[in-house]
Amino acid sequence: MSEVPPIQIIYPTTLDEMAEMLWQVEQWTWGTQVIAIDTETNSADELWTTGRGFCRLFQIGTKEKVYVVDAQGWHNVVAEVCKMVRDSHKRVTFANFKYDLRVMEKEGWAVPNLSNIEDVLISHRIYRSDQRRHGLKVAAENEFGRWARYGKQEFDKAVASGGWNWNTVPIDLPEFVQYAGFDVSLTARLQEAMRERWSQWYDIEV
Questions:
Q1: Which of the chain's termini has less CB crowding within 10 Å, N or C?
Q2: Residue 145 main-chain phi, psi, to 5 deg
Q3: What is the pLDDT of residue 15?
Q4: In what order do the strands lie in the sheet with 55-61?
Q5: Contact, 166 vs 17, CB < 8 A?
Q6: What does the pLDDT average to over 136-144?
Q7: What are the pLDDT digits (tens) for 95-104?
């Protein structure tokens, strides 16, 4: 397996750590780095049948640093993060934005304006139209190497060992936190690659 690049994945659990996260997100909204958002939820089959409480983890970060937050334990802090991002009018990247925006709406969190949303899976479909598969892990592996599957592989092994599913896996399980953080890093990293190779299709401000 190719070498995994440095990715700082933080699971904040104290008020001080939450304050640091809010400060960092604000800095990101002023910068030029790609910001990505993702959510981990109960079984996707329950998306249309449950209300608040469906989201288990909320993640936000860049390719190098990601915060993974207990979505219910720190629900109000996540709400503040989402409001901060929306009000900044910063472009934000998702992998399947329709799902994550629906999750955020169910939780009562602010969602970015559609004009400020990028979806890396759509970008990849356009940029790599020669490929049949455009899922995040496949696209990232093709672009960066086999390390892109590391987080998912470790998570799958842990879930199988513990006999868990999406509804029961402990949210603070290290492999779950790592998996969640990896997805955000991959999303930001892949979108950055799409921007760099496809820059003539983006406006001059990107």
A1: N
A2: 120, 180
A3: 97
A4: 8-10, 65-70, 55-61, 35-41, 92-94, 117-119
A5: no
A6: 76
A7: 989 999 999 9
Q: Which of 10, 8, 7, 20 is nearest to 77 (CA)?
A: 20
**Predicted TM-score (pTM) of this structure:** 0.89
Q: Which residue has the tokens 């049949």?
A: 132
- SS3 per residue for 135-195: CHHHHHHHHHCHHHHHHHHHHHHHHHHHCCCCCCCCCCCHHHHHHHHHHHHHHHHHHHHHH
Torsion of CA 112, 169, 63, 25, to 10 degrees: 50
Helices within 31-149 (DSSP H only): 75-88, 97-107, 120-127, 136-144
Phi–psi pair at 118, nearest 5 degrees = -120, 145
The mean pLDDT of 136-155, rounded to a whole number, is 80
Query: Which residues are CB-contacts of 34 (< 8 A; sequence separation ≥ 6)?
Result: 62, 63, 91, 93, 188, 189, 191, 192, 195
| Mean pLDDT of the residues in the chain | 87
Tokens of 65: 């640093």
Contacts of 191 (CB under 8 A, 6+ apart): 34, 36, 93, 118, 120, 123
Record the tokens describing residue 74, joined without a space: 């720190």
